[in-house]
Amino acid sequence: MNFRIAIATLCLGLTTAAAFHARAQQSSAQANTQADAQSRRSEMTIRMDTDLVVIDVTATDKTGTYIRDLRPEEIQVFEDGQERKINFFAINDEVTLSRPLAVVFALDLSGSLRLDEMATLRQAAMKFTDLMKGDSVFAALTFNHKVKITQGFTPDPAKISRAFERMDAFEGSTRIYDALDRAITMLVGRSAPRTRNGRPVRRVVVVITDGFDSASIIDRKEVIRRANDAGVTIYSVTLPSFALSPTDAATRVITPLDASRVVSATGGQDFSADARDFTPIFKALAEEIRASYALAYYPDSRDGKRHELQIKTSRPGIQIRASRTSYTAPQQ
């Protein structure tokens, strides 16, 4: 997210000492126990009167296990090759989601999914909304030769369930990138909350498709640009109707959606689905989101231009995925 806020409340599980001093008012008792307070998970109100660059980050080891104990000094943010000071740093709580979500489910109805698979998918998606409930909100859209919003943002999982139940016509061409563009537009629109109970919302799209686009108008690079500017992370659930590798029946081929880098360039991940049970996919997605960190810094640039971002860690053997690889600076 790159937006101007007069007053916003960030729930930070862990912050740098500099941000702890500069942005939070503490009682004298807290000031005397700064070291302990920095290591605790705490909730702080932070006043901001400028544009922040917020980046959601996931860290894994070589086996794919999530790393939840990175310290602020182990992560570096580079803008156009120059290291920037991280002003705010937080990790989601593993039990209670510290940062609420705004999620758009984008479902491919071009024939990639059978009606019986739809019921299984709906049940799994409902378990995901249950895991992510609280202050989070959800919306749904479908796409084939046209893109249609079937449910606006709501905190009520039952409304999302009914939206899935109404999805029963599977036909037509496939407009994946147009659907992702519409989802991003929904997330930055007036109907989508920027904060929930004073906490900034993380923006997420979950696209459920076979990964083969055939009719989109928008360019995939424009989708990445718009997602990066809006701070949107895109996750894909690749349906079991994908083409299998001719040399390995257990391995799927790289789809055009994979090759587009839309998912990886927004810090997301692909999950290959099993039509018999989508539940493990959505549980894995929930774990992914819960394991994320939030970083934020004040940019120096006010030139309205595009700036490249890179996130690194000094801890050996750790792989980093970030929600944005670039952003457009505000115009002075």
Please render the helix and strand layout as text:
Elements: E1 8-10, H1 17-23, H2 28-31, H3 34-39, E2 44-46, E3 53-60, E4 75-79, E5 82-84, E6 88-91, E7 101-108, H4 115-131, E8 137-143, E9 147-154, H5 157-165, H6 176-188, E10 195-196, E11 199-200, E12 202-209, H7 220-230, E13 232-238, H8 256-260, E14 270-272, H9 279-290, E15 293-297, E16 306-313, E17 319-322, E18 326-328
Parallel strand pairs: 7-8, 7-12, 12-13, 13-14
Antiparallel strand pairs: 1-2, 3-15, 3-17, 4-5, 4-16, 6-15, 8-9, 10-11, 16-18
Helix pairs in contact: 4-5, 4-9, 6-7
Given as residue ranges, the uncertain stretches (5+ residues, pLDDT < 50) are: 1-49
In what range is the share of β-strand residues? 25-35%
Describe the largest sheet: 6 strands, mixed
Question: Which structural class should the secondary elements be placed in?
Answer: alpha+beta
Distance between the ends: 18 Å
CATH topology of the largest domain: Rossmann fold
Question: Which radius of gyration do the C-alpha atoms yield?
Answer: 20 Å
Count of helical stretches: 9
The CATH class of the largest domain turns out to be Alpha Beta
The overall strand count is 18
Order of helices and strands: EHHHEEEEEEHEEHHEEEHEHEHEEEE
| Spatial sequence of strands, sheet with the most strands | 9-8-7-12-13-14
- Mean pLDDT over the residues: 81
Proportion of residues in helical segments: 25-40%
What would you call the quaternary organization? Answer: single chain
Number of domains: 2
The CATH architecture category of the largest domain equals: 3-Layer(aba) Sandwich
